[in-house]
Write a structure and sequence with these properties.
It is a single chain. The chain contains 18 helices and 8 strands. It is α/β, with parallel strands linked by helices and 432 residues long. Strands 3-2-4-1-5-6-7-8 form an 8-stranded mixed β-sheet, sandwiched between helices. The chain is elongated. The structure holds guanosine-5'-triphosphate and magnesium ion (MG). Magnesium ion (MG) binds next to helix 11.
Amino acid sequence: MDPILIVVIVVVALAAVWFLFLRKKEEPALPEAEQSRPLPPKAADKPSAAAKAPEKKEEKRAPEKATPPPPPPSEKAKPAPAPAAAAEEEEEEEEEVPVEVEPARGAAPKAQAPLSRRAKDVAGLRKGLTRARESEGFFGRLKAVFAGKKEIDPQLVEQIEEVLLTSDVGVKTTEGLVSSIKESLSKGDLKSEDKVWEALRAKAREVVDIGGGGIALSASPTVVMVVGVNGSGKTTTIGKLATRLTGEGKKVVLAAGDTFRAAAVQQLVAWSKRAGCEVVTGADGANAGAVLFDAVQKAKEIGADVVLADTAGRLHTKTNLMEELKKIARTMGKALDGAPHETLLVLDATNGQNATQQAALFKEALPLSGIVLTKLDGTAKGGVVLGICAEHQIPIRYIGVGERPDDLRDFNAEEFVEALLGNGTESEEKAA
Ligand SMILES: Nc1nc2c(ncn2[C@@H]2O[C@H](COP(=O)(O)OP(=O)(O)OP(=O)(O)O)[C@@H](O)[C@H]2O)c(=O)[nH]1
Ligand SMILES: [Mg+2]
C-alpha cells in the first residue's frame, strides 16, 4: 500500500476520534433529579382550563421566591439544585398553591344566611296577618290586580283604588294614596309593577308612622286605663300585657274595673294568676271608680311599676256611659297625680269602618294616648290600620294577632307595612 495513503487514513482516523472526544466533553451530565423530570407536554397535550390556574399562580410567585442574581442565561446553564433542595422546593410548592376552585355551574348554592331579627319579626307578624295576605285578602287582591298586566296604566290605578276602598282603608285615606300614585304615574316615575308596589308601601308607611309602639313607663306606678266597646278584647289585652311585663321583671297590679259584666272579674283574676301578678277586685256591684282608686293606692303601697285598669265594655254612642268613663278617670287622678298616664282604646279590627267611628267618639270623651287594634288575625281587610291612623292621628301602641299571651305585638310602622304589603323573600315566606 502506498505509504502516503496509509498516513492519510491514520490522520483522518485520529481526527475523527478527536472530534468525537471533544463533543462528548461538551455535553454536561444530567443529575438524577433532572433526568427524572417529566417531559414537557407536547403541543397536542394542551392543559385543561382547570389545570391552568395553578400554573399561573406559580408564574406569579416565581419572582418572590427565587431571585438569584444574575438570572441564569439559559435553562441548560442553570445550576441544578441538589436533590434534597429540589425535594424541599417541590414540597413548598405543594403547600403554597391554594387553588381557588370556582364552584361548578349548577352546583348547590351557598347556605343562606340566617334571617335577621327584623326579618323574623316581619315573618312572625305576617303569620298573624295570614288572612289579609291570602288571595281573598287585602294583599292577595292587590297582587291579583297586577297579574297578567304588562303596562302600568290609569285603569290599573282604578283597580287598586277599589281594593283599598273595600279593605277598610277608608275613603279619605284611599283618595290620598291613589292621588299620589296617579301623580307619580303621570310624571313617568312608575314604569314597573315593583315601582308601584314600592310607592304604595312608602305611602302606607307615611300614613301609619305617627309614633306608635309600646307604652312608656313614665311614672311610678304608671296607670293605664283600658277602654272600648263590648268584646273588643280589653281584658285579654290587659292579660297579655301583664304577662309580658311581669316576664320583663316589672311589678304589675291589675284593677278589676269591670264591675258590670258577670264573670269579668274572674276572667281578670285568671289572667293575674297566669301572669303572676297582683289583682285588686271589689265586691259584687261595687263602684268601678272606687275599685280603680283602691288599685292605684295598693300599687303605690307595694311599689308597683304598672297598674292595668280594666273597664266595662260600652257602646260609644251611649253618652251616659262615656260620661261615667270620664268620672272613673278623674277618680284615679285623685289617687295619683297625673293618673291615668295612658288611656288605651281597644278596637276590634274585624269591625272595619265601625272601628273608625268608635275611635272618633271615644276620642271626644277621653284624651286617648293610643290604640290597641285586636283580632287582626281574624280579618282579611288589614287596611283598617291605615284608615284609623290617617283619620284620627292616634298612635297604634299594640296589635293583637291571636288569643295567646305572646300574640300581642308592639306596633312598628315599617314592620307592619312590610308584613302586610311586602312581597317577602322566599325564606321569609317559609319562616312565616
Ligand atoms: N283571634 C283573636 N281573638 C282575640 C284577640 N283579642 C281578644 N280576642 C278574643 O276576643 C274575645 C273577647 O275578648 P275580651 O278580652 O273578653 O274582650 P273585652 O273587651 O274585655 O269584652 P267585655 O269585657 O265583654 O267588654 C275573647 O274570646 C278573646 O279571646 C286577638 O287579637 N285575636
Ligand atoms: Mg272585659
